[in-house]
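Researcher: Let's walk through a ligand-bound prediction step by step. First, I give you the protein sequence. Second, the SMILES string for fe (ii) ion. Third, you return the three-dimensional complex as structure tokens. Ready?
Model: Ready.
Researcher: Here are steps one and two:
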Amino acid sequence: MPMHAARPLNLAELKARHVTLPVCPSVFLKLQELMQQPKTTCGDLQKVIALEPALAAQVLKTANSAMFGLKRSVCSIDEAVLRLGLNEIWVVASALNAKQAYGAAGGWSEFNQNQWAHSLKMGLLAKALGERLNQQTADVFFTAGLLHDIGKQLFHVVDPAYADRTLDGLVHGHYLCDQEREAFGATHPQLGAELLRDWKVPAPVTRLVESHHKDPIEDSGLARSRCSFALANELAHNPKWTPEKGMTALPGKVPAETVLEIVMISREECLALAAAMHARAEQLLASGSA
Ligand SMILES: [Fe+2]
Ligand SMILES: [Fe+2]
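Model: Step three, the predicted complex:
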């Protein structure tokens, strides 16, 4: 895999290159089909849009844009869909369609498919763990979970060889961040958060995206929330995760037992949750890919 000398990759550079995130073609077709049916409701759209990170991010961006600027900002994808309504979703979808058609996104690859599956699993697991705190946290966690690795998609568009580093899951977490810093002068949490901030996605979401590979107990006031989100990422990578295997994605090397204690969850509950959410994600992925 080609490793470049460190060159800072930032949003300005990506914008100058007109980088566009690819949307899963089958999910996109589903959305188009729905838009052509007169009986389609916002609820139908919510189900499809919440399946796909790039699509969800675009809808959040529009819902939080100046056009809707007089209202409070939204973290929840369902709320963003409601705010936009059917007509505006159609405008967003058409614009994305035009970009995909011009090939600006570089197509849909195995890397994109793997990232999609991981993001959906992470979104569902984060939501389930967030529900143990409160409903508002669950909504923020779902959005942040779905979008947490969006920076990887950006790196991949810029450098397709990036996929080699992550495809087999051998390098992830803070080890991957170290490689990214070396290759691009930035990490995927930094770049992803920068993009989402630029799109006016609210701070509760961007902060989780930005910190998802940082020591989750460095800020004691947020420890339960940060540990829950970090645990969701671990379980999304590995449903058979056990405390003995440690928190491999965390730079703080926080003992896993400590994380379980802070999250207030037993290892049995953890494994049951992981199995249920992986199964749910597989179902959704199959329906979205059909
Ligand atoms: Fe990550
Ligand atoms: Fe992840």
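Researcher: And what stands out?
Model: The longest helix spans residues 77-101. The domain at 16-289 is CATH 1.10.3210.10 (Hypothetical protein af1432).
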